[in-house]
Structure formats: structure tokens, C-alpha cells
Amino acid sequence: MSLFLHPVFFLLRHGRTAQNAAGLIAGATDAPLDAEGLRQAQAAARRWQALPVGGVHVSPLLRARQTAEALMRRRPDLRATAAPRLAERHWGIWEGRP
Fold this sequence. Notes:
Layout: H1 18-22, H2 35-48, E1 56-58, H3 62-74, E2 80-82
Parallel strand pairs: 1-2
Helix pairs in contact: 2-3
């Protein structure tokens, strides 16, 4: 089989959250994007809208869904599939800490 026949995967990390900005571990905390994170999601969506994306698999965490939604507004042909295994792990006592 040719190497050129394999699927291509594009990975995109979510935009910034208040926890990211403060240098804190968000982990499983369901933090939303902050204003800068929303701008980052929009900028990523602009750059990604022409990519040959066939589907979107997204963590169930709000910050990831908000980032994916920015792309899907530009690509109404896409639907998001929840992918719980993409969610960040829970960091126990380290959640919310530097």
C-alpha cells in the first residue's frame, strides 16, 4: 500500500483559557475560553477552513468544543463527534495549581 493513501490527521489545541493565562493546571476543569482564546479559535478557523477536513472529533470539555465550533461555523458541512478520550486528565490535587 502506498504511503500516500493513508488518512491525514490535523490536530488543533483549544484556545487560551483564564487558567492557561495564569499558568494554572486546568486538567479536567471545564473552563471556557477567555477573550483571547475566542480570538485564537476564530483565527484558527480562518486558517483551517480550506483544509480537507472530513470530520471533527472533539474533547467534551467546553474549551475544546468552543474552539471546534469556531471552525464549524465556517464549515457548516462539518459535524463534531464527541471524543471523551481526547479530554485532559484530572490532575487531582494539582488541578487549579501552578
